[in-house]
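Re: the request from the purification team.
They wanted to know what the chain is likely to look like in 3D before they choose a buffer screen. I agreed to run a prediction and write the result into the notebook, where they can find it.
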Amino acid sequence: MRWLSKICLMTIGLWLLNHGMAPAQSPPEVTVRFLSSATGAGIPAARLSVYDLRNMPPLAELLSTEATEAGWVRLSPPPGEYLLRVQAEGFSPLTAPFTVEAEHSLSVDFFLDPVTLPSELEPEYIRSLLRPEAMLICGFIVDEQTRRPLSGVQVTSPEAGVTTTSDARGYFRLYLPADLPSATLQFARSGYRTQIRQGV
C-alpha cells in the first residue's frame, strides 16, 4: 500500500467582529506579546527584563515586569537600543534586541518554544493519525486579542466537502485527499470574522 500522507500544521488567530486597532500614542509605547510557538496562545506570567544597550558595559537592567494573563506587556521606554530577555515556566528562555524610535509606537510578537510539545503535536501521535492517500491538516485556533484557545470554530474545506470543529484547547484536525491540487480552508465562529486560508 502506498502512503501519500502529508501534514500541515497551522495556528489561526480569529478577530472579534468589533475589534479595532488602537491609535498610536505619544510618547512611543512598546507593546510586546509572548506567544507559544506551538499553539499561538499567550504565555501568562512570562517574566520580562529589559536592558539599555546605550550604557554598556556593564549590562544594567532597566526594568523587570511580568506579562498579563494574555501574554501582553506594555512599556514606554525612551528612544534607544534595548535588549529583551524573557523567561516563562515550561518554555525555553529568549533573548532579542529591539529598537524604539521617537514618536513611533512598536508592537512585537515573541514566540517561545515549549520545553515539551503539546500531546497533539508529538511526532509519535501525529504518525498514528496518518492515513493512506490523505493529507492531514491540524493546528490550534486562538482569539487574536486575548490569545486564548477558541473552541467551536468550524473548519471547512469547500473543495473536499469536509468540516471539523475545534475542541476546548482550540485544536482541530482535518483530512483532505492527497491528490487535491490545492485547498481553501474556512474558519468560522459566531461573533468572529470568518477567515479564509487559500493554497493549503
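For the purification team: Residues 33 and 160 are 36 Å apart (CA to CA).
Please add any questions underneath this entry.
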